[in-house]
């Protein structure tokens, strides 16, 4: 009986983290700690990486495949603006 219960819990709550880097987890954790989790739109919100529970309940954020690239562009732009204002 315990095996059956364990199997059911595993099917419902297990996530597939294949091809998800630790940097994705770090990005999500940083935004969570800053209270801005709704801004995270990375791979961990991709439906193929969600548990059955998250898919059925809708307890996940929006997924944007180019989210990380957009963040990098914003950081590069901010660095360029800072360098220009400092006269470099």
Describe this protein's structure:
- The protein has 88 residues and is mostly helical.
- It is built from four helices and no strands.
Give a quick summary of the entry.
The protein is mainly alpha-helical and 88 residues long. The chain is 56% helix and 0% strand.
What attributes does this structure have?
4 helices, single chain
| Overall geometry | elongated
Structural class estimated from helices and strands: mainly alpha
Biggest sheet architecture: none
Q: Tell me the radius of gyration.
A: 18 Å
Overall helicity: 55-70%
Quickly count the helices.
Answer: 4
Give the SSE layout:
Layout: H1 2-13, H2 22-33, H3 52-57, H4 67-85
């Amino acid at each position: 009986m315990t095996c059956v219960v364990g199997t059911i819990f595993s099917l419902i709550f297990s996530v597939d983290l294949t091809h998800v880097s630790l940097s994705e987890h770090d990005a999500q954790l940083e935004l969570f700690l800053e209270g801005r989790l709704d801004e995270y739109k990375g791979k961990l919100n991709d439906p193929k990486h969600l548990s059955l529970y998250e898919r059925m309940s809708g307890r996940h954020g929006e997924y944007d495949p180019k989210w990380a690239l957009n963040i990098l562009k914003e950081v590069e732009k901010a660095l360029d603006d800072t360098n220009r204002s400092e006269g470099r």
